[in-house]
Records
---
Amino acid sequence: MNVNLELTDHCNLRCRMCSQSLREEAHGAPHRFMDFATWQHAVAGLSDLDDVTLCPHWLGEPTLHPEFDRFVEHAFAENVGNRRFRHFKLHTNAVIFPESRASLLTRLASDRSAAADTFLAIHFSLDAFSPGVYTRVKGADRRELSFRNVERFLEVRGSAARPVAHVAFVVQEENVHEAATFVDFWMPRLRAAGREPQLTAEWPAMDRDAVYLRRWNSGDQARADALHAAASAAVGLPVRPRAAGSF
Ligand code: SF4
């Protein structure tokens, strides 16, 4: 089961397609950061659950937490023999992703006190290619920074098998014309790691790097589906109808 322990509901971006960015109060209360005692207690409590995939986020940007590294290190230190969680995955916009964080996450993913596939993937939400489109879609001028951070993460990870990198692009009106350019930019950079990445318009596999053209959940789902189909066709992917229950 997926367990989302939300380190914060703050975010440093305001993406057009995200409910987090459209509300002042994501949970009907002022935005907050989780305190360390709550995290310790919650991680310890995972032992009572079966087959947990731990995700340290829900509506906000987890790396915005001032003690993100400490929290994640604690979770892995507690997970000897996978006694707390079976898998771990992270979603981030990569705006606050220095080399030290890339090194830490790569080290935790190779920690053999738990199963080798414990740290599954990092999902990098980029959603644009050009700086102008990035700023319109993401609500802030952080394209160069986030792209550079993802490229540096790939360098730091080197030939390590984990965590795999999913570079994601939510297809929408403002960026659909950049989908092929985005794919052409990222596929060679993922290949440079020495293994063939997946190009997909559905949820990526958890054992491979991927460029992911993601379907937008929209109030006008027919239009979102048409945009997703156009982007998929532009990069040679099959156009499939939206699966029932998908989000
Ligand atoms: S970065 Fe993530 S949480 Fe923040 S507004 Fe964008 S999609 Fe939402």
---
Amino acid sequence: MRWGGLPRFLIFSFPRHRNRQSVPGRLVNWIAGINTMGRIVCVANQKGGVGKTTTAVNLTASLASLGRKVLLVDIDPQGNATMGCGVNKHELQSSTCDVLLGEQKLQAAITRSPTADFDVLPANSDLTAAEVGLMSAPLREKRLSLALEGADERYEFIIIDCPPSLNMLTLNALVAAHGVLIPLQCEYYALEGLSALINTIRQIQSSRNPNLKIEGILRTMHDPRNRLTNEVSAQLMHYFKNHVFSTIIPRNVRLAEAPSHGLPILLYDSNSRGAVSYLALASEFLQRNGQTLNATA
Ligand SMILES: Nc1ncnc2c1ncn2[C@@H]1O[C@H](COP(=O)(O)OP(=O)(O)O)[C@@H](O)[C@H]1O
Ligand SMILES: [Mg+2]
């Protein structure tokens, strides 16, 4: 139960402030055991092509547009999140790879998105080498967690885009995170993959990161004309209930076009259904984290 037993009205009845969560709001969250300062959320699903990167980039951009200080961490050697927010992965001075290998400080490797209002820890194919290097390194699964120490004072949210496998890089993200956001395409094999991921999350909860929570399951690339999509969606709601975000991300071609311009959807086409749905997701995400909605956009 996310609200730690507190009546909901307590969470939403405090005065609203621009840009930041109110002090009483933070106090209530602290009492309720919800960490909202520097909350680290990884976007994970071992299946490729389910909308992880699209969600990581656009949730980050939408939270930023609502006035939150956000860091996007790319921990996928494909560097798609890096490119998707306008940073050229072929011209990086330093990257997630250097940070994980302890060769660069986090702050020195972070760059500003040239197109949007948030910071990025960028990545490229060097991360593949880092993964190999990490295999024999001490504290290999805690490298990201250790690197992010202190960043929670500079950012309200840190969103991590994971690669499409349950490898050492994803493990680093799951060990560092407070929450896992699981994008899921409502198709035949989706639920099977989901149970494997949830088993992994349980193992990590019981061994390395007892604070890890399921932030929510997000239905992506949703096409309501497809009968199977609706069936899988109904099953998800039945089994996972309030762990499923009520916001649904529709299939929308503008979302697929935006990364090729290095832009989050809000900056590429703010009127598109994709932009509206990711903004709604950011609002729901903030509400689930006990924050009032003080939009500045
Ligand atoms: N809601 C959507 N509607 C249309 N295309 C989408 C949507 N979400 C993602 N895509 C496209 O689908 C492909 C896979 O999405 P991506 O976010 O890269 O998945 P992952 O990171 O899980 O591999 C990309 O080409 C992306 O642009
Ligand atoms: Mg991806």
